[in-house]
Design brief:
single chain; 292 residues; alpha/beta; Rossmann fold; 6-stranded parallel sheet; 10 helices; 11 strands; 17% strand; globular
């Protein structure tokens, strides 16, 4: 059994991006500039955005953080999105989700210029993904594919079961792994809360991807011997034994499932760092698509 070190792989990617930035500097070219919009004070969102800003600093990207309190009006946020769309110094930006209930997330997502949508959530980018046209892939699925690629995990002809059908992870990832590409060419089953005989279906998986958001949901009896397991779950649960009073828990019962696997990602340190790395890759790509 091998634990997949997403933190180490993301570090490799950031080093590669750092070299690309240095080469741009030598040639007098523009340095990538990422902006992040954060609404409210959700601790998980704040940590995630801070990690993005830190990654920019490590690589040599420019970054801008725009922070509103959770009472910000929807029209104010949409006006900021439009300003970022037209700001030529900003190459790509994200609006951190989730947003407060009084703001329509879909409206905000659709307002982002697809050429600056480095999260890959805009319908145009999702459509480009389906027909394999240039665009931005959703950051977490793209990070998972990059992890699979760099670990030389064979996907062709394999049964892949994804638990969770969100528009952010499960749905796009099912399309990406089913495409005629490498990684890809899987026979994909997209399971969810309405799936009958879920345990029996999951046990057929050569590659199991858990993205359901329920700590410990995948138990050892659901995983077949020799499977590759990728845990996307990151739920904060109370833990008085830690200094912070909480810890991150994945969707997989790691201790009991890991011995049955050929490879498995931990939480934290698995998919999370790959999402950040993928976002950085999309930021550089945003400049390339514009020919800068």
């Amino acid at each position: 059994m091998e634990i997949i070190d997403g933190k180490a792989i993301s570090k490799e990617i950031k080093e590669e991006l750092k070299i690309a930035v240095q080469e741009r500097k030598v040639k007098g070219k523009k340095i990538p500039h990422l902006a992040a919009v954060l609404v409210g004070a959700d601790s998980a969102s704040m940590t995630y955005v801070q990690n993005k800003v830190k990654a920019c600093e490590e690589i040599g990207f420019e970054s801008t953080l725009i922070h509103y309190d959770d009472s910000v009006a929807e029209d104010v946020l949409l006006a900021k999105v439009e300003a970022l769309n037209t700001d030529r110094s900003i190459d790509g930006f994200i609006v951190q989700l989730p947003l407060p209930k009084h703001i329509d997330e879909l409206k905000v997502t659709q307002a982002i210029d697809p050429l600056k949508d480095i999260d890959g959530f805009h319908p145009r980018n999702l459509g480009n993904m389906v027909v394999h046209l240039p665009g931005f892939l959703p950051a977490t699925p793209a990070g998972i594919l990059e992890l699979i690629r760099r670990k030389n995990i064979v996907t062709e002809g394999k049964n892949c079961v994804i638990i969770g059908r969100s528009n952010i992870v499960g749905m796009p990832l099912s399309i990406m792994l089913g495409r005629n590409a490498n990684p890809g060419n899987c026979t994909v089953t997209l399971a969810h809360s309405k799936t009958n005989n879920l345990s029996a279906i999951v046990r057929q998986a050569d590659i199991l991807i858990a993205a359901v958001g329920q700590p410990g949901f995948v138990t050892a009896d659901m995983v077949k011997e020799g499977a590759v397991v990728i845990d996307v779950g990151t739920t904060r649960i109370e833990d008085p034994k830690t200094a912070k009073g909480w810890r991150l828990a994945g969707d997989v019962d790691f201790e009991k499932v890991a011995p049955k696997c050929t490879m498995i990602t931990p939480v934290p340190g698995g998919v999370g760092p790959m999402t950040i790395a993928s976002l950085m890759m999309n930021t550089l790509k945003a400049m390339e698509l514009k020919g800068k």
